[in-house]
Amino acid sequence: MFGNILYFALKVSLIATLWAFVWRYVEPRTQAMRILRAAILVLGLLGILAMVKITGG
């Protein structure tokens, strides 16, 4: 029970960290940069999803 809660908290914090990092360091000065930021977020979140599925979450 406690392990499941801890694992869930770790997943949420990993997602929040990725989002905050991309949101802070990729500044959208043009439309292309906005698209790039969205693409980086999508690919990063898909990577996190794959990592969680591989590790058995």
Q: In percent, how much strand structure appears in the residues?
A: under 5%
Oligomer: single chain
Secondary-structure element order, N to C: HH
- Calculate Rg over CA atoms: 14 Å
Tally of strands = 0
Backbone shape:
elongated
Query: Please, how many helices?
Result: 2
Question: Which stretches are low in confidence, meaning pLDDT under 50 for 5 or more residues running?
Answer: none
| Helix amount | over 70%
Report what the structure shows:
The protein has 57 residues and is an all-alpha fold. Helix content is 84%, strand content 0%. It contains two helices and no strands. Helix 1 (2-25) packs antiparallel against helix 2. The longest helix is centred in the first third of the chain and has 24 residues, at 2-25. It starts with a helix and ends with a helix. The model has no long low-confidence stretch (mean pLDDT 90).
Topology:
Elements: H1 2-25, H2 31-54
Helix pairs in contact: 1-2
Distinctive features:
single chain; 57 residues; mainly alpha
Summarize the model shown.
By secondary structure, the chain is an all-alpha fold.
